[in-house]
Amino acid sequence: MNALVPGSLDSCSEDWFPDEVARLLARVTRPGRYTGGEFNLRLKPGASPRIVLSYPDVYEIGISNPGLQILYAHLNDATPAAAERAYCPWPDMAALMRARDVPLWTLETMEPVAGCDLWGFTLPHELTYTNVLEMLDLADVPLHAAGRGEGDPIVLGGGPAVADPWPLAPFFDAFFIGEVEHRLDEIVEALAAPSRAVRLQALAAVPGMWLPGLSEGPAQRQVFTAFSSTPPVLRPLVPVLEAVHDRAIVEVMRGCTAGCRFCQAGMWYRPVRERPVELVVAAAEQLLGETGCDEVSLLSLSSCDYSGVQEALTSIRALRPGVRVSLPSLRIDSAAESLGRFAADQRGSVTLAPEAGTQELRDAINKGVDDAQFEEAVRATFAGGFTGLKLYFMIGLPGETDADVAGIARMAGTAARLAKQIARGRARLSVAVSSYVPKAHTPFQLEPFAGAAVLRHRQQLLRDAMPRNVRVSFHDVAASLVEATLARGGPGSHRLVEEAWRRGARFDGWSEHFHFPLWEGAAAAAGIELGAADLHSEKTLPWESAVAAGVTRAFLSEERARGARGELTEDCRDGRCATCGVCGGGVEMDVLP
Amino acid sequence: MSWWLLTFSRGGPAAYLSHLDTARAVQRTFARAGVPIALSQGMRPKPRISLPLPLPVGAVGCEELAVVEVPDDLPGPAAALRELRASAPPGLTPLSIVVSGEQHPRPQAREASYACVLEGDAGAVRAAVERYATEVSVVRERQSPKGRRTLDLKEYVVHAAAEPAPGGTRLSFAIRYRDDGAARPQEFIDLIATWAGVEPVMCGLERRRVTWKGMPPGPSPAAGRSVSP
Question: Quick one: which of A517, B100, B148, B228 has the most CB atoms within 10 Å?
């Protein structure tokens, strides 16, 4: 026996965590959620201002958000500020923190969040809103901006959900509307002012900033025009705890002008901007070294529309032969070609999103995909050796009929038949069906939400019509009802969020935590009808009083009318300008030659 | 190909990782350091790395072991160790590398010493430890997905002691690993806590040292620790 026993090895423990935190960590599930310790962690002791970045969901979700990584890297590496992070504690930890009176801390320094100068939230979707209140409360920061004083942080919201900031307006001191990369230096400078009031005034002067009750008009959505010439994050945080995404990410393109009429991201992130292939390949090479990942994802809203996709795939594979390269989103009309680009060793599953079951409805939503293209894409999937296919549809779209829903089952049947023919029983086929929620700043922003009864009826139609060998999953209708209420809420809609939180609503995006009766009770108490949008005046919609998204009302109205007529609008990068209103004043489409 | 035995410590934030997360963190440290790990054969090649003795979530490990297969054409282990230290995440510190050769080493733990702090009545914890020393047999039942099993803690847990410490009582003990398995640290801590009437939640569980069977000759982890990261 060769024993490796050191002569006198004393304790190797060090005091990394305050005692009160260590005691909590010993009592909760997955304590690694609360300790940081990622690869590429930044520590800037003594730096000022101190900014905390938050994503209002559990760590494993939040750490995978690329937007927060951009802010974290830029603030720490390119400004005098120290950026730290906090995510929403899981209910077991939240209960212990309250019981032991331990306020929310940051993963970098273990210091209380409440002591920071600025607390920035990335707001991804409506079902995280109660988590924002939960985090404010756990941090001992007054829930309402009006109740905050000199020693409290300025609470700033950003991200895609600020397209309609009203449901959260009273809880935030300010919202930043749009892409913030080029405004971070100005925000940091504003925080140097001597008092809270002056800091808020300075922030109000930053383009894109909307301060509830202080701003006189809507904030213009900001577009990061230097996107194409700026490298992506090259030294991202890499979690040591298993997260939902575990791969290096290169954002190759921002924006999408395919013009799907239901899609908020397609309207919100206009215009299209592409990064040069050399920049993408160099970034992938460095990222793989910095992260230790064996997969790189070329990220965008529609990566196969990226002009340099073929060259980038080829170059990255040539540089790093063993590395997998993935495209997170495939368009059906070009899927067959895209799937052919993958090497033989990159097998897995493919997701295709026809969105609607009939040609008429697909034309109405401007998803110009026909049945032949769909069949070709499914054939390419199975012939290419991919072992899984997931089809993504929505129900409750404007103008939808039961016949359109039956069309979904027909398409699934076609895919099942091809799977059997080509993959000979080796392939898995699943269908995910979500409920359409009309969103602000889209052509369908004035359309009514389909309603719970209609959605449940159509879910049942689909269950009955779906082939037996296809696995189908549905979004919870009740959760969609809440989402629909908050997606187009006006002034006063915050009462629903606050009431639901006070009644115990948390992690509403998690089916095991979503309790509809809490929301029903909250809606009754707040006097708000669930599922109804605040459309009292079509002249100025509530979200338009806070946010100027760039796309004009005239364009959105015209697109809505074209949808009703079943007319397609072509992608402006391939054809004529659709005069959406985004370009101009230094903002232009920036695609590769 | 040759096999390396990497000794490392796990503390701070890394102490709160699961066994699989720890293995992934070590693997990723190799990748970031540019030290390739050999891949297994077959349809889905996997890196040839294993951590032979899992450490409980929340526990500090002073000299943990990873067994790794690497290509022959690598620079020496000293250079690799430097790169690994520079590439490791906070709390995970590579200490030493022993080159084992072409034969796959299969080190087996024989005994590991643990320590932790239990909150509550220090006298009661001491009394519980004294009681354990006098018992001939302490049989406990373990329920796992594999079924129900009984084990006598006295056959596995030795050298138990209690001493005053800040915040409570420091409980130290050693676990013997036998061919038929071993007790888990939490099982012994639960026993003492139950007998003492204190909460079975401890702070700062620490695995201080491990003795191994089947370990090739080479520098000890202590020697590795003497090199500053």
Answer: B100
